[in-house]
Amino acid sequence: MPFASLPPTKKRVALACALAAWASAGPAFAQYADRVSATVEIASDERRRGLSWSEGDPVVRAALSVPVTEGLSLESSAVSLWGNDRHGGADAVVDLGAAYVRQIGGWRLSAEGRYHLFPGSSGQGYGEIGAGPGFLIGPASIDLSGSYAPRQSAVGGDNLYLSASASAGVPGTPLTVSARIGRSSGNVHNPLRAARLRPDGAYWDYGIGVDYLKGRWFAGLRYADSSIDASRARHGGATLIGRLGFSL
User: Fold this and answer.
1) Quick one: pLDDT at residue 169?
2) How far apart are CA 210 and CA 177, in angstroms?
3) 132 near 143, Cβ under 8 Å?
4) Among candidates 32, 61, 35, which has minimal Cα distance to 46?
5) Cross-strand partners of 79
6) Residue 65 to residue 37: CA distance in whole angstroms
7) Burial status of residue 248 (CB atoms within 10 A of its CB: 0-12, 13-18, 19 or more)
8) Taking Cα atoms as reference points, which of 117, 121, 74, 60 lies closest to residue 93?
9) Residue 103: CA atoms inside 13 Å, Cβ hemisphere, count?
10) Counting beta carbons within 10 angstroms of the beta carbon of residue 204, is it exposed (0 to 12), middle (13 to 18) or buried (19 or more)?
11) What is the pTM of this model?
12) How far apart are CA 50 and CA 52, in angstroms?
């Protein structure tokens, strides 16, 4: 039976199993490259830049990073969306790309390029590039970054996202606390499509979080909010997001 014709409940189970199986391929790559990393987790919401991409529903997430050469790695991730209306009824989002990171003393310079695919929908994919510096101060890290999606019909124009974040380990504990703030803006060429990423025009998003790491297991709790007018976008207001996962 084709995936699209499965009942909603069976579709969710099939997609969750597929994501988990896809991520478990990580150890096989370890034979050919050092420090391959893979994670699988569940979360109460998939929220990006202050907007829920899963309409407030729980998700399954899998990610895989494969080093190519020093500082350069191939990155991929997949998240269940359960037929999200924001992305044309997509069942998932698959992010594919490459990232380059170079450490110079306490400074960390990074650059990346990613393309977002949306299985279960058509004409929704778009790409973006990003770069930024970071600085380590003892157990703390401060990062500045910018991501730009050039003009594309899928997002009704272009999109610029600037952000700042900080994180620090709590001495003597497996806990890390973090905070971030970001701003989305851009030019609009198709208002209906642009509302997909900026439903209320240019806006701010912000949040704080705490993460726990024990061996291969990790858990986290994050508060996220934005300046978006709640009447203009569903699932754009304040929320508390929990997650639980493990690395392979």
Assistant:
1) 95
2) 4
3) yes
4) 61
5) 61, 93
6) 5
7) middle
8) 117
9) 5
10) middle
11) 0.85
12) 7
DSSP secondary structure of 112-128: EEEEEE-TTSSS--EEE
Which pair of structure tokens corresponds to residue 244?
A: 């639980």
The DSSP secondary-structure symbol of 187 reads -
Tokens of 189: 């060429």
Pair 19, 43: CB distance under 8 Å:
no
135 neighbors 106 (Cβ within 8 angstroms):
yes
Tell me the mean pLDDT per 10 residues along the chain, length 248: 46 42 35 73 96 94 96 97 92 97 94 97 97 93 97 97 97 96 97 93 96 96 92 80 96
Q: Which residue ranges form the domains of the chain, and what is each CATH number? A: 3-247 (2.40.160.40)
pLDDT of residue 90: 96
Angle of CA points 210, 79, 173, to nearest 5°: 20
How far apart are the C-alpha atoms of 182 and 165, rounded to whole Å?
Answer: 9
169 within 8 A of 191, measured Cβ to Cβ: no
Distance CA 88, CA 154 (A): 10
The Cα 115–Cα 124 span in angstroms is 11
Q: 178-203 burial, b if ≥16 CB within 10 A, otherwise e?
A: bebebbbebebeeeebbbbbbbbeeb
Angstrom distances, CA of residue 59 to CA of 41, 49, 86, 163, 240 = 8, 17, 15, 24, 14
Residue 19 structure tokens = 């994501």
- Give yes or no for a contact between 158 and 149, defined as CB atoms under 8 angstroms apart: yes
